[in-house]
Amino acid sequence: MAGDLNQTIFVAGHRGMVGSAIVRRLRGLGYSNILTAGRDELDLLDQRAVRAFFSTNQIAQVFLAAAKVGGIHANSTYPADFIYENLIIEANIIQEAHQAGVQKLLFLGSSCIYPKQAEQPMKEEALLTGALEPTNEPYAIAKIAGIKLCESYNRQHGRDYRSVMPTNLYGPHDNFHPENSHVIPALLRRFHEAVQRGDKEVVIWGSGKPMREFLHVDDMAAASIHVMELDAATYQANTQLMLSHINVGTGVDCTIRELAETIAKVTGFAGRLSFDASKPDGTPRKLMDVSRLKALGWQASIALEDGLRDAYGWYVANEQQTRVL
């Protein structure tokens, strides 16, 4: 990876799944001046605090991985929290990075920015071409706003603020809350506890038919740093003024049923799987078109079963810690 190994790089959201993976990757590459700040040190919802933080530190690059995240249940239950907090966090960081003269920033979005009925696989051009999935529309709108913030600061102020849109992520430091987590950590925990109790059956929300693409967070971190370190000419040649974001994924999907069967294998659950079709399925299919990222020289390397074993190993090692979630 090219770049000054002594430059100050601020990773916002370093305690989260993606932020912690980016920090691990940067350190592995030899970067020695990685700036982080927990909620007890910096409230990202407080614009004055964020402004003071940027004015105090000589920051060269920002990875904006901080966000309020959750699964279908959390998004449906707390829509106001999801849109408000995500809008404020990204607006504060992008504005104050600009005010402090930070030229390079990477905003991490989500594949939920695309319309519910977007043509599969979803290309970057699908943005704003149709209605969003209702269950996470507030969160998606906040992420779309983040993309447009980056584009607008580039257009008006000549900044180099880039955006990457990951598919469904999983891995170490994920949220394993039994109700407010995404599908992989929720199922890993559910199957693990079923094995411990000796259950004969595990019930999975939905029909099991929707198709999803999953990316290990270490691959996401590698892709994020790859995109950040592309020279401006190469990046601009592969994006457009009004289409600055880049999809990040594997380009391969599976059904929720197939995912559950793989998780049963990884956790050692030998009982019966049943699907509760009364629960919402969400978007029928979400597969990213990752041809643009491949053209820029990067593709995923961690297979799903291998990644699930890694995530499960982390969960088992940190089971007591995750109980507080």
N-to-C terminal Cα separation, in Å? Answer: 36 Å
Portion in helices: 40-55%
Instruction: Return the CATH architecture.
Output: 3-Layer(aba) Sandwich
Shape call: globular
Flag low-confidence runs.
none
Helix and strand pattern = EHEHEHHEHEEHEEEHHEEHEEHHH
- The amount of beta strand, in percent, is 5-15%
Mean pLDDT: 92
Class by SSE composition? alpha/beta
Number of domain modules: 1
Give a short account of the largest sheet: 6 strands, parallel
What gyration radius follows from the Cα positions, in whole Å?
A: 19 Å
Major sheet strand order? 2-1-3-4-5-10
Q: Could you walk me through the main structural features you see in this protein, from its secondary elements to its overall organization?
A:
- This protein has 325 residues and is α/β, with parallel strands linked by helices.
- The chain has 12 helices and 13 strands.
- The chain has one domain (9-322): 3-Layer(aba) Sandwich (Rossmann fold), CATH 3.40.50.720.
- The strands form 4 sheets. It has a 6-stranded parallel β-sheet, sandwiched between helices. Strands 11-8-13 form a 3-stranded mixed β-sheet.
- α1 links the parallel β1 and β2.
- α6 packs across α11 (304-317).
- The longest helix has 21 residues, at 79-99.
- The model has no long low-confidence stretch (mean pLDDT 92).
